[in-house]
Amino acid sequence: MSQRTYHDPLHHGITLDDTNRAEALVMTLIDAAPFQRLRRVRQLGPAFLTFHGAESSRFTHSLGVFHLARLALGNLTRLDPSLEEEQGLLYAAALLHDIGHGPLSHTGEEMFGLHHETWSAAVIRQHPAIRDPLEAFSPGLADSVADLLEHGSAKRSVIKRLVSSQLDCDRLDYLLRDSYTTGARYGQLDTERILAGLTLSPDGDLAIHPKGLMAVEHYLVVRNLMYRSVYNHRLNIVCNWMLEQLVQLARQLGPDQVWADPVMERWLWDLESMDLTSFLANDDLRTGYHLQRWREEGPRPLAE
Hints:
The chain is mainly alpha-helical.
């Protein structure tokens, strides 16, 4: 028997036990290189330039989403024991929902014109370190996880809601985490009450028990305040715009005037032929290095 605990500043101890097959799967997926790469992708992209504490990673956030999804499923399984069969799908989808994020998270999507859901599905379907453990757990699970993340399709609607909806585990974690790391006080949620208030409707979909309504109403107010105070902060918007302009300029100047290594060359000027290796080779560290070099050196003179 093997256990490990991740000490999270929000959720405290997130303990995994390999005697549970679904948790053993999570342990294997966490150790895989594509998931470890998320340590080098900031949760809030360049927002750390506005909020200096916003240094948390997609790795940390993804663990938090898994943790909340496990708690939610545990509560709902008491109402419908058959939901225990969905552990593998839910745990994997919650953990891997951001595995396709490129550098600078959502800002990177705007800069490079990519969609992280599409790349998450590609990593899950194609990378052996992710696909093989999923298939070993249950044949067809890799496609099921990829379809859930890319297209929102799942046999049990309640599983889809926990992964992607207006009240999902992703939103619950990022509101709490982003509030904590930026120093904003608006994102304080009663997650325990919200999760306790989750129930099942007669058709098996996710519903809210009346005892959880006030906590959900508070969540809606918190989400509005976080968008106004953090995500749409004027300096954050300006910073994102400047980075987008920098990438557009590099694309316009082309490889004759802008230095880039083979990986960044593909990201800048050959996105249509992007393969999984080139995608996973880029993260905040590599992109930050290139952006800094462009800022310091400017365009290269054309060769005479």
